[in-house]
Amino acid sequence: MQQMTIGVIGGSGLYEIDGLTDIAEVCIETPFGEPSDAYITGVLDDVKMVFLPRHGRGHRFLPSEVPYRANIYGMKKLGVQRIISVSAVGSMKEAIVPGHIVIPDQFFDRTQGKRTSTFFGQGVTGHVQFADPVCAELSDVLFESARQVGATVHKGGTYLCIEGPNFSTRAESLIYRSWGVDIIGMTNIPEARLAREAEICYGTVALATDYDCWHESHDDVTVEAILAIIRQNVAMARNIIKQAASALTSAPNCACGEALKFAIMTDHALIPEKTRKDLEPILGKYLV
User: Fold this and answer.
1) How far apart (Å, rounded) are the C-alpha atoms in residues 158 and 180?
2) What percentage of residues in the chain have a pLDDT greater than 70?
3) Is 17 in contact with 79 (CB distance < 8 Å)?
């Protein structure tokens, strides 16, 4: 039986995974530059794990500076089949109280087109289905794991991804609320899109840190307030990851692993050799 490998991409406040054994640092070269940091590999309760701090250790990258393609490409090269994204978000709903956990099932992209969101190009065209942007199977496990470790968790909801690094204006926040979104963040797009193209299951553990600036009876969002909530939530996120890892030992039973099956539009004979070589970990099985 093939060993399952779970990737964790840590957001603000989560820069390492507790309890890993057989730890090693792995540096990956990619056609898309260097990833955010070295990958930390190890074993957590007999499950192989690969951890990457999204913003780099020391939080060096702005949301729009994160090398998303390199990060996901490296995960693919290391054999990751599932990615758990841990992300700090603002709440856009009264019921999602700072300190709560959300397992979103939809994304709305407001990143203003400044981030490359595909591996395709350079002589190869593809179109990947993204109507349901997270892996339902993985998200179900994350939700149940959050419940089991005592988190107040909300299943489903729309994550609005903005460019950042600035927080919303009050007018923007109120308009976003009128759209019916549930949480707001700065990083899960294009991360989720690239994971789908790489045929890796993707799910988000979103840590609600604040009410953005729409809530009249709460103070406007500040970095100090966010960091205080993050410190509380990170311990919970680690517990969720550990619980989920123990439930994700078998192969995925979903369509994520065949997302590219009918996606490549280019005549295979016309794909440049360099592009073939660069994208071999992602497209290789379809270009033989």
Assistant:
1) 8
2) 94
3) no
- Cα distance between residue 37 and residue 57, in whole Å: 7
Band of the pLDDT at 274, cuts 50, 70, 90?
very high
Q: Is 116 exposed, middle or buried (0-12, 13-18, 19+ CB in 10 A)?
A: middle
As given in the structure block, the two tokens for residue 11 are 């957001």
Q: Cα(244)–Cα(5) distance, rounded to whole angstroms? A: 12
**Taking the C-alpha atoms of 260, 266, 271 and 274 in order, what is their torsion angle to the nearest 10 degrees?**
-50
Q: What is the average per-residue pLDDT within 165-176? A: 94
Query: What pLDDT, on a 0 to 100 scale, did the predictor assign at position 232?
Result: 78
**264 token code pair:** 């490549």
Peptide bond into 133 cis (omega under 30): no
Q: What is the pLDDT of residue 1?
A: 45
110 beta partners: 162
Residue range 18-59, pLDDT digits in tens: 778 899 999 999 999 999 999 999 998 889 999 999 999 989
Please tell me the pTM assigned to this model.
0.94
User: Does 210 participate in catalysis according to the annotation?
Assistant: yes
Helix (H) / strand (E) element for 47: namely strand 47-53
Catalytic-role residue among 37, 105, 212, 278: 212
Using an 8 Å Cβ cutoff, are 112 and 250 in contact? no
Select from 175, 179, 181, 185 the least CA-distant residue to 214.
175
Q: How far apart are CA 271 and CA 284, in angstroms?
A: 12
State the catalytic residue, choosing from 37, 182, 210, 278: 210
